[in-house]
Design goal:
By secondary structure, the chain is of the alpha/beta class. The protein has six helices and five strands; from the N terminus they run E-H-E-H-E-H-E-H-E-H-H. It binds 5-O-phosphono-beta-D-ribofuranose.
C-alpha cells in the first residue's frame, strides 16, 4: 500500500467495531491510511512516540478514538502539529458515553480536537477526507460525488413516499 495520509488510532481493540467505520469510508475514497492501537494510559510511551513522529512519517490527519476517560485524542493533539479528529466511544467502561464525549470535547484553549458525535467514526473519516481535499482536487471531486449520492438517496425516498 502507498504512503498513508490518515492515521486511525484507538485506545483498545474493543474500539475497533466503531473505528472500522472510519476506515471503511476512507477506503471507499481510495485514500491510503493506517490503523492501529495506541493507548494513552496503557502505552503512554508509544503514544508520545506516535504523536512526535506522525507528521514526519507523512501522516496529514489523525483520527483518534477512545472510550471512558478518553485522553488519547487530547494528549496526541497536545504534541502533534497535525489536525486531530476525536471520536468518543461508548465503551464497556463508559457511563453512557458522556465521560468520553466530555473528555474529548472540552479541550483547553490552545489544543483543539475536532470532536465528532458519540461513535461517529464515519463522520471522522469524512472530515479527515475533507481536510485532505483542500489540497487534493481528486478527493474533493469524490466528496462532491458522495454528497450528490446522499442527496439522490433521500430524493429516491421522497419519490417512494409520494407514489
Ligand atoms: C479506553 O478504554 C479504550 O479506548 C476503550 O474504549 C476502553 C476500554 O478498553 P478495554 O478494557 O476494552 O481494552 O481506554
Amino acid at each position: 500500500m502507498s504512503q498513508p495520509k490518515i492515521s486511525i488510532i484507538m485506545g483498545s481493540d474493543s474500539d475497533l467495531p466503531v473505528m472500522q467505520q472510519a476506515a471503511d469510508v476512507i477506503k471507499s475514497f481510495n485514500v491510503p491510511f493506517e490503523i492501529t492501537i495506541v493507548s494513552a494510559h496503557r502505552t503512554p510511551k508509544r503514544m508520545v512516540e506516535f504523536a512526535e513522529n506522525a507528521h514526519q512519517r507523512g501522516i496529514e490527519v489523525v483520527i483518534a478514538g477512545a472510550g471512558g476517560a478518553a485522553h488519547l485524542p487530547g494528549m496526541v493533539a497536545s504534541i502533534t502539529p497535525l489536525p486531530v479528529i476525536g471520536v468518543p466511544i461508548k465503551s464497556s467502561n463508559s457511563i453512557d458515553g458522556w465521560d468520553s464525549v466530555l473528555s474529548i470535547l472540552q479541550m483547553p484553549g490552545g489544543v483543539p480536537v475536532a470532536t465528532v458525535a458519540l461513535n461517529g467514526a464515519k463522520n471522522a473519516g469524512l472530515l479527515a477526507l475533507q481536510i485532505l481535499s483542500v489540497g487534493d482536487k481528486s478527493i474533493q471531486q469524490k466528496m462532491q460525488t458522495y454528497k450528490q449520492e446522499l442527496n439522490d438517496a433521500v430524493m429516491e425516498k421522497v419519490k417512494k413516499l409520494n407514489s
